[in-house]
Design a protein that fits this description.
Elements lengths: L1 H26 L6 H6 L5 H11 L5 H13 L13 H36 L4 H15 L2 H15 L15 H35 L2 H8 L4 H12 L1 H25 L5 H10 L3 H29 L1 H9 L1
Helix pairs in contact: 1-13, 5-6, 5-8, 5-11, 6-8, 7-8, 7-11, 8-10, 8-11, 9-10, 11-13, 12-13, 13-14
């Protein structure tokens, strides 16, 4: 198992390294010159050149990349071009709200998606299965920001059950924080719940058709135990796969939903960074998102090894 963990970890680090190169190069393709934007419309060429030199934009791309990576390794992302404060401080302020929303939305997706998928598989072509299909059709057919607007209109404006905007940390006031988190959580997590429900239904239905499930029923085991201990457990590998792959979609969705609900977080920070051509700020935020995505998938790979030893063996042999 140790060799398997090391190999998967090294592969994850390689992906992060290659992604950092892509991020660095793509950011430079954003139209506009950060120095010219900072200098203003009335700036002279000498003013712009001085700002470029101060920001290090005159250095070769390789030098800029090496300097950036050397800082990232030490958790030093440089200083924001536009705000002139360390990027690390800006991220430290904006990350907790986004992380809070992403965790809440992910828990919502798991709590809703897995039971709905299991119920649809157990009662195939019956009311639970049809209900799951309607749920999937509704949530997957509506973008999360549109769903967020609908939730705001119905539950915040018309029914006045939830606040329209703003955020209170759950660590400061748990009740009020959750009250303000409910609608964004549903908007960000519903599509993920639908994806999970669809894959859970397929995986559990395949497991229920296996001989070992029929044998368990023949032994007189309770239906609940057969479903949870036999069918669902053996269907967990594809479920873990899709759950891990949804991390990236979840983070992206949370960022968009934050803007709809006017919650402070990565969403507004990314907009500020792009509008200001703030290379270091955008690079840092994208690098963090890539790291979280790769870490989630690496953790999923490790989980595979625990769920099915055959994967560890095949992973080492390949």
């Amino acid at each position: 198992m140790g060799r398997y963990l090391v190999r998967r970890s090294l592969e994850g680090l390689l992906v992060i390294f290659l992604a950092s190169i892509v991020i660095f190069l793509i950011i430079r393709l954003i139209p506009g010159d950060p120095a010219q934007q900072l200098a203003g419309d009335d700036a002279t060429l000498e003013d712009i050149a001085e700002i470029r030199e101060d920001l290090g934009l005159n250095d070769p791309f390789l030098t800029q990349y090496v300097n950036w990576i050397a800082g990232v390794v030490q958790l030093d992302f440089g200083k924001s071009f536009t705000k002139r404060v360390p990027v690390r401080d800006l991220i430290a302020q904006s990350f907790p709200p986004t992380f809070e929303l992403a965790i809440a939305a992910y828990v919502f997706a798991l709590v809703v998606g897995i039971p709905v998928g299991v119920a649809a598989a157990v009662w195939a072509k019956q009311l639970p299965d049809y209900g799951a299909s309607v749920f999937n059709l509704f949530t997957l057919g509506i973008p999360n920001f549109v769903l967020g607007i609908l939730l705001l209109w119905i539950f915040a404006v018309e029914l006045d059950l939830f606040p329209v905007s703003g955020r209170v940390s759950v660590f400061e006031d748990f009740a009020e924080g959750m009250h303000r988190l409910v609608l964004p959580m549903i908007a960000a997590g519903s599509a993920i719940a639908a994806v999970l429900a669809r894959f859970v239904r397929t995986s559990v239905a395949e497991a229920l058709a296996q001989d070992y499930v029929r044998t368990a029923h023949a032994k007189g085991l309770r239906a609940r135990r057969v479903i949870l201990d036999h069918a669902l457990r053996n269907a967990m590998i594809p479920i873990v796969t899709i759950a891990a792959l949804q991390i990236g979609n979840l983070l992206a969705g949370a960022i968009v939903v934050e803007i709809v609900f006017t919650r402070p977080g990565f969403g507004f920070l990314i907009i500020d960074g792009i509008s200001g051509r703030d290379y270091l700020l955008i690079q840092a935020m994208l690098a963090i998102l890539v790291f979280l995505f790769v870490a989630a998938n690496t953790l999923a790979d490790i989980t595979y090894g625990y769920l099915d030893p055959r994967i560890r063996v095949s992973g080492l042999a390949s």
